[in-house]
Amino acid sequence: MSEAVVALPQDAAEGYFDESRRPLVSLAFIAPLLVCYEVGVLVLRVQNGADAWMRKWLDLLGFSQHFLLPLLTVGILLGWHHVSRRRWTVRGSVLAGMAAECCLLAMLLWLVFKTQSMVWNWAIAPVENHLGRRATLCVGFLGAGIYEELLFRVILLSGTIWALKGAIAQPTLRAALAIAATSTVFAAAHHVSMAGVVGEPFAWSSFGFRVLAGGFFSVVFLYRGFGVVAGAHAAYNILVAA
């Protein structure tokens, strides 16, 4: 009797971690963020860089409909869930747990950011202050959580790991190389001007931190799934701007 009681919390935890990784649950979790962002794009004219790039690429292919990208996002997650052959159910308790987990992960990365900033300011070099963002850009932060993670983790990271499969047999090494490469691209992309989005001036402090953040988000994505990493990314951006 006592052994069964002790095992329950572990079983519940394993059930949560497994269920929260399912693409359908990720879709249910990010759906409110996606709706808020898309409405914000239309009303406030605020747009995330990754979103602008992907819409520009679709436009070059002849697909200029505004709602095509969010529909593709939904379609990717539904297709991913279908091929995974998992249950088509979503529990509210799991969504609540994911929200709490995203906040904890965001706070962890925020502490890393603050530590890195203090070290840079005190020991390396004075840096420019980039704190002039308005509260309305919270809409853009939601877009960053969804579309940057879709582009850099779901598409690029997963694609790179798959592409390295024939050359590198060891899964851990393959994942590490893919994380390093895509995290560097993730950091560099913030300094690139494209599709009407002006990149930030280059600074080693911000570039180095974003490489680290890209690695952090990559590990969260691989172990915790798309919903958690998208929520943690959005929560972190909002936390830094607060």
First and last CA, distance: 49 Å
Label the overall shape. globular
SS elements, strand count: 0
Radius of gyration: 19 Å
Content-based structural category: mainly alpha
Order of helices and strands: HHHHHHHHH
Q: What is the helix fraction of residues, given as a range?
A: over 70%
- Please outline the major beta sheet: none
Unreliable stretches: 1-9, 123-133
How many helical stretches? 9
Strand content: under 5%
Mean pLDDT: 82
Quick structural summary:
76% of the residues lie in helices and 0% in strands. It has 9 helices and no strands. The protein has helices at 2-19, 23-44, 49-60, 68-84, 92-124, 138-163, 171-189, 204-224, 226-241.
